[in-house]
Structure formats: structure tokens, C-alpha cells
Amino acid sequence: MGAIGGDEMAQWDNVDGGEVVNGTAGKLEKILVSVRLRPLSDKEVARGDPSEWECISDTTVIARSAFPDRPTAPTAYSFDRVFRSDCDTKEVYEQGAKEVALSVVSGINSSIFAYGQTSSGKTYTMTGITECTVSDIYAYIGRHEERAFVLKFSAIEIYNEVVRDLLSSESTSLRLWDDAEKGTYVENLKEVILRDWNHLKELISVCEAQRRTGETYLNENSSRSHQILKLTIESSAREFLGKDKSTTLAASVNFVDLAGSERASQALSAGARLKEGCHINRSLLTLGTVIRKLSKVRNGHIPYRDSKLTRILQPSLGGNARTAIICTMSPARSYMEQSRNTLLFASCAKEVVTNAQVNVVMSDKALVKHLQRELARLESELRCPATYSSLEALVKEKDNHIRKMEKEIKELKVQRDLAQSRLQDLLQVVGDNHVSKRPLASGRNFTFDVPQPCEDQISTTESSEVVDNVQNFRFQGRRAAQREVGSQQSENNVQFATPLSYSVSSPPFSGMPPTTSRDDVYQISNEDSDDVCKEVRCIETNETEGKNGLDSSAIGSNILQDSNVGASTHGNDDSRHGDVSTVTLEQHLETVRKPFANLVEDLGSSTRNPSRSRGIVRSRSCRSLMGSTLFENLEKDDCTPPSRRFMDFPGRPEGGQRRGSALNFDAESETLSRAGSMLSEITTTRGGPKANGSIAGDTEFTGIGEFVAELKEMAQYQKQLGVC
Ligand SMILES: Nc1ncnc2c1ncn2[C@@H]1O[C@H](COP(=O)(O)OP(=O)(O)OP(=O)(O)O)[C@@H](O)[C@H]1O
């Protein structure tokens, strides 16, 4: 019997003699695979079956001739170690199993397999390997008196897919159970605590006697079951026994002597032997599948549960264990194909990786001690000034951020209240003026187009045409201009992709001289182009019917008249222009000035861009000041598809029907509200302050400042006329 020594021994000494580290990381390593050739048996020699396999090195075995059925199949196979037929089992153990097997003393699970066809020498090999291993283990224990060892032994066989306890005289079938910690285990399996090496020898003898064997044509004493001998070793440092620091290393080594695959035709088996052979082959097939899958993908589904053999051996095949497989084979030519299958299995097996870990069992006291230490460490981390100060700084930063946001919210609320009060003022005035509800006798319509996202499509040419048309309108007579510009706008509206148009009318001043210094952006709304542009006439100029004269609110109300009214009066107003007295106009001007007084102030510092040809109201600018849901609604309209973007109002000549409107009140109040919104938008566009106090420079609208200025200008002119 050999003894543990050399570097391996030193390694183990380090483990069991030193401090045990809990939760040691696993070590990934491949299964150690070796091949052992046995000598030709007497039968094989007798029938003149030549030896076809030869070990050409310590790692490579070759077939001397090609395989009869597969002439192109490779004939050379390399493994971790190959053993010639004249090698004794001791050598096989030393080089092919010892390192793995003795890992058990350092708390690492290990397994030694023997795999091969029937009569290839598995039992012969495993018997010797087991003996060598146990001998070395006892030798190790003898050298390490500082540690207390407990050895336990158990043995099972899997016969026809029935698990049986080989240490029990009863032949009852044992059940397999799965446990989160223990993995798969055999229920009610007898486990004997070993007294000494001789005790183990006795038990192994019992197992041999209990194991199912039978005579076949190929093997007089053929094993008809898979046998698994399990030796569990627990060790603790004697000095810590019963103390807080006490820990235990616990691991098992499995000696697996598989039943041999056989061909019924060669084994000449029948009856019970044939049935056994079927079970053996089936379970070996599953083992081969598991090994093949493990050799390719580790994370895929591995059919461990397809047989009891693979269920029990799962930790040894792909889990927490070091594993060595010794493949045995007959060198006889008549078993070439079976030998080749064995080598293919071995080739797959050598690619399988296991993850062996040191298994440390802590005593309750040690566990409590360990947890207390961990708790103390965490508490000290919490108390660490560096950590605390960084947390404190983070909290301060968050607090500052919250305060800043609260301040911003307050400011926004103030702005919202201010905007709402302004809107109410405007609506109040608008409401007062609306009471008169005078039909628009005539009026010049100022249309503020609100281009939708396709505003970039507007060409300079189109813009200049519009301006020209407006000027034509202003200086050549309103009716003619309306026709011309209305037609032009119809075209423009198509190009604008259905722009939203707001119309503001002013009283007609046909005699007013051209104000070429101003480049207004007025357009004439085209009532006839509704089908195309779907414009909404939100604000229209009201004009008193000529001979009735203008009352003081007429101009004020001009921004509120229903579009129908405006439309109905377009054609009959020229004759009334001269009926407007200068006094009345001044009154109207004053009326207009009142609601716009504040707004004009805002517009005092306005920056205008007269060169732009369209009044574009950006709700983004307006809403910040007004905070009105009306703007939200308007913007919603902006965002709706073009077909839903505009509203027609009841009573329009086109019989318009509200479509896609977000405003939910009756048409008249809607008109009023829109007018109010419109005014608010006007005041908050170019020249109006943004919420943050800056100038709303992103709009192209010529604001109410211009409108009011024009009114002033007109009044002035009328005054002059009156004087004349
Ligand atoms: N390396 C070897 N040297 C000498 N004899 C051997 C060797 N290997 C096996 N034998 C002999 O070959 C015969 C068959 O061996 P063994 O029973 O171990 O085969 P097996 O693979 O276990 O067969 P089965 O699967 O049928 O149980 C035995 O008589 C055994 O003594």
C-alpha cells in the first residue's frame, strides 16, 4: 500500500493543519481520464483472437489495424494516461486515481469510476484502486494525530434500476430523494462508522458477496449491477474540539464499479441475463449521454434524472467533486468496436469539467461566532466616518435640490396666478363687449396663421406674395383685396398643410394712407377655402353697422365676433366707412386701450421682426405666461393630425361642425375663450415676456403692440380727417 506524500501531502497538510476558510471557492478542473488495457484472457488466446491495441506512449493508445466497419475512423486516442496490459493496479492507482481519490481527506468530494465493456477488467481494477485508496487514507490518518477523523462507509448497487443496500441483508428497494443541501441521497441507507482498516475490509467483502453477479459467455463472474462504495471522512482539529473555533472537514470518495456493456449476441445472454443486460446498457447509455452533453455545454439540460445511476452520480459528473475515470478495455480484435466505443466515451469524459470545493462543516458555536464577527464588521463599516460623511453630503445635496425645486414651484404658481388674472381681465372685457353682439358690417381681417410642423415648407416667394396681397388689400380696396388674397391664402393654406388661422379684423379705413414703413404679417382669411384649410375663425373684428354708429364697445368687441357675423358682413361695408366719426373712433380706441393697457406695457420693449410674413403663435411661449388650459387645448389641437386640427363653428356658412376640438363648452363661449386665448397669445408672443423674464424670441408673430399701435395711428388719422 502506498502512502500520501510529496507535494500533494504538503497541500493537504496546509488545509487540515491550518486555518479553515469558510466558503472556499470551487476549483474548476477536467475529469482525469485514463485507459487501461488488460492482457488477453485465456479464452481469447485460445480462439486465436489477436491483440489489436497497443499503447505507444503513456498517453496514447492506437489500433494496429483499421476498424472493420469504419475504415476511416481514427485509430489513435490520447488521454491523461494509458496503461499497458502489463501495468499493475498499483501503478494505475498512483497515476490515474490517487490524486483525485485522496482529495477526500482535505474536504473535497471525489469519485473514481471504472467504465468498459463486460470482462474488460473493471472489477479487477476497482478492487485494487479501492484498496490502495483506503490504505493511503489510513496511512494519512496515522500521520495526523492532531486531527480527529471519523470514517463512515456505505454501499449500494443498482440492479435493474433498483437501488439496494449492499450492507443490508434485506433486498428491499431504496428510494432516492432530492435535498437542497445534500443533493440526491438514498433513503434509509445504512452507513457504518469504521473502526479501522480491517473493519473496512470486512465490509467490502460483504459487499462483494451481496452484489449480483452471474455467469455469462464472456465473463464467468460478471457483475450484473452497478456498485457504488462510499467512504465518508470527517476530520476536525483536536485542539478545537468542543470549542468555539471547531470546524469539520467532511467529504466522500465514491468507488464506482459499473456493470459492463455487452452485446447480447456476444454474451449469448438470454432470460434474466438478457434483461439485466438491457438495464445495464440503458443506464450506461444515459451515462454516456450525460457525459457527452457535459462535455459540450455545461449550462444546457443534462438528463441526470433519466437513470438512477446518473442521479446518484450527478455531483461526481458535473458538480462538487473531483473525478477520475479509468476506462478498461480488452485488446482482443473481436471486441474492437466495443473498445472503440469505450474510447469515445473516454474522449467525451475528458472534456467534462467539475467544480470541486472544500466542504466545511461548522459547529453551531463556530457558526454563531462567525456570524457575530460578520455583524461587528458591518457595524464598524456603518460607523466609519468616511462613509458617514459621504452619506451626509449626499443628503445635503438632495435637500438643496428639493429646496430649489420648491422655490421654482412657488415662482411658477405666482406666474400662473398672474396669467390667470390677466386672462380673467381680458375675458371680462371681452364678455362685456360681446353683449352688444353687433354684426360685423365690414372689417379687415387679420389672419394669424399658425403653421404646423411643416412650416419649413413655406417658401420665401409664398411669403412675399402674401405680403403683397395684404398690401393690395390695404390700399386698393378691401373687397377686391379680399377676393385676391383669399384666393392666395387658399393656396397658401394648402401648402401650410392646413394651418390654423386666427382672424382679427380691424375697422375699415379705406382712406388711410399706406403705412409702408410697417411690414405687417396680415393675411386675409378666406372663408371660401374652409374645405381645404379648415381654418378656425377665432377672433374677428366687429364693426358696427354703419348708420347705427359705433358704440363705445364696438372696437373692443371686434375681436370677438363670431366668424359667421364677419363672413356675412364682408360684402357690404364700403359705403359705411365715412359714417364713423372721429369722436366715436377715439372712444373705441380708448375702449381697446383699456384691456390692453397692461399688455402694451409688456410690449414696450418688444422686438419685432416685420420681415416675417406670418404671425406664428407658439403655445410654448404663451403657456409659460398664461398657464391656461386654453393653451393646452390649443396645443393639443396643434398636435392632432391635420384632419382633426381645426374646428368649425356652428352656424358657419359651411355648416361647420366641431372636429377634433379639445374645448368642451358651447360654441359661443368657446369662441369667447378662444378670443381670450388669442389675445393672451398675442401679448405673449414676440415682445411679450417669457416666464423666465426673457424675450420670447422664438415667435414670428407681430404682436398686439403693433395692432394697438395701428389703432392709435388710425385714430390719429381720423382725428386729422375730423379737423379737416
Ligand atoms: N489487468 C488485468 N490483469 C490480469 N487479469 C485481469 C485484468 N483485468 C481483468 N482481468 C481478469 O479478467 C477477468 C474479467 O475481469 P472483470 O471481472 O474485472 O471484468 P469486468 O469488466 O468487471 O466484467 P463485468 O462487467 O462483466 O463485471 C477476470 O478474470 C479478471 O481477473
Compose a concise summary of this entry.
With 724 residues, this protein is an alpha+beta fold.
Do you know the CATH architecture of the largest domain? 3-Layer(aba) Sandwich
Derived structural class: alpha+beta
Q: What's the CATH class label of the largest domain? A: Alpha Beta
The CATH homologous superfamily of the largest domain is termed Kinesin motor domain
Please report the number of helical segments. Answer: 22
Uncertain runs: 1-24, 437-582, 603-669, 682-702
Q: Can you tell me the CATH topology of the largest domain?
A: Kinesin
**How widely separated are the two ends?**
140 Å
Number of β-strand runs:
21
Give the CA-based shape.
elongated
| Rg estimate, integer Å | 51 Å
Overall pLDDT: 68
Helical content band:
40-55%
- Main sheet, how many strands, which sense, barrel? 10 strands, mixed
Give the bound compounds.
adenosine-5'-triphosphate
Number of domains: 2
How much of the sequence lies in strands comes to 15-25%
For the structure shown, list the relevant keywords:
single chain; alpha+beta; Kinesin; 2 domains; 10-stranded mixed sheet; 3-stranded antiparallel sheet; 21 strands; elongated; binds adenosine-5'-triphosphate; microtubule; ATP binding; microtubule motor activity
